[in-house]
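User: what does the whole thing look like in 3D?
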Amino acid sequence: MKARAFDYVRPHSVEEALQAFANADGDAAYIAGGQSLVPALALRLQAPALLIDIARLEELHGLSVIGDHLRIGAATRHFEILNSGLVRTHAPLLSKAASFVAHPAIRNRGTFGGSLALADPASEFPAMSLALGAEIEIASLAGNRSVAAADFFLGLYETALQPGEMIRAVHVPAATARTYCAFDELARRRGDYALVGSGINAEIDNGRIERIRIVFLAVGSTPVQAKNVENLLIGNCLTPELIRKAQETLEADLDPPGDEQTPAEMRMHLARVLLGRLLGRLEATP
Amino acid sequence: MNSRIAIALTINGEIVEALVAPRTTLTDFLRQDMQLTGTHTGCEMGVCGACLVLIDDRPVHACLMFAVQADGCVVETIEGLTSRKAIADLQKAFHERNALQCGFCTPGMLMSAYGLLSSGDVPSREEIRDTLSGNYCRCTGYEAIVDAIERTARDRQNTETREEA
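Assistant: Here's the predicted 3D structure for the full assembly of 451 residues, as structure tokens:
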């Protein structure tokens, strides 16, 4: 349960960090919060020769509103998301999801960008980045590029990041007066990985759903968008009857895995329950 | 390759300079190099909460940090909190309510409680349980721990109210 020996550097800029990775011939890992990487090192699931500590890089920190976007620096810690008034106003879905992220002590160290880069399918922030239609700003020696969340999560712990690339920031379209959202998850113990989780972000005008994104977590190898349900809801007003129909339609969107504790049918059932609850309590932006 | 790295940090109010191997976790550094054995090693993977310390006044897992990452930080361990009497009332409440049996989890429990009560508010029992969700206790069943933290929060607020009056 101890990490293999490695070298450690703390570069002074993103550029320097990218260069350090290139110089290590790929046998390196970036560390920010380390809340998933350190256990992986201790279990020797990963054993890079070099750790590049990017947690203190000023350019990776900070929350700011730029035009109609909220920019979240990659090294912003989970507790900062949870406590931020800026996030509450401009990305209330992230505020709601943040209290479900792990335990308080993990939230004090873990970073937003780190969570996305890891792409754990049971994690809240990757799924909610997809629900919000976020753009992920990626730094590499070849130059910066931007990838939509919909094109970022490719598989189990697999993202569009190429070796050596680093998330610099995440851009989230800011909420408007017509934005409504809800988040919840079902877990055996508070703070444990969710059996099923979901978040909804919608634009509603006079009760009529104009746009809606419904994303589930812990139901597959990536966050899963319930597109059939979304298409059913768009253009309509929410009624108990429509919510029931949405719950029936959900089967077309999800094909959750089963295990000994949670059979697939139970997970599907929980997802339907969750969808009904969330549609019934979409909240306006504060 | 893998040379030791010089770090300087504040531990329990004292400035400490040391040479550490990058792979040394903060837990091992505190326990073995600093002889501060109140920080316990349980799961060593961020689940059990026995290794919580304060970094810049926030509870974090010392097992999920390498000592090199704490360079320049202000670290406080259970020994520090105890000696400056920051949690004397919590410790008393834990004792009186039998909120510990074997005591292995207690330093971590006290760290989480310290973090929760530092806002000065009286948390709900649900909030206390939420805060303790990252601390495992295999003896007490948690009820007594929640009681002790809740009582301390109320006592602190009563003291404040009396002082204001």
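In plain terms: The two ends of chain A are 46 Å apart (CA to CA). Chain A has a mean pLDDT of 96.
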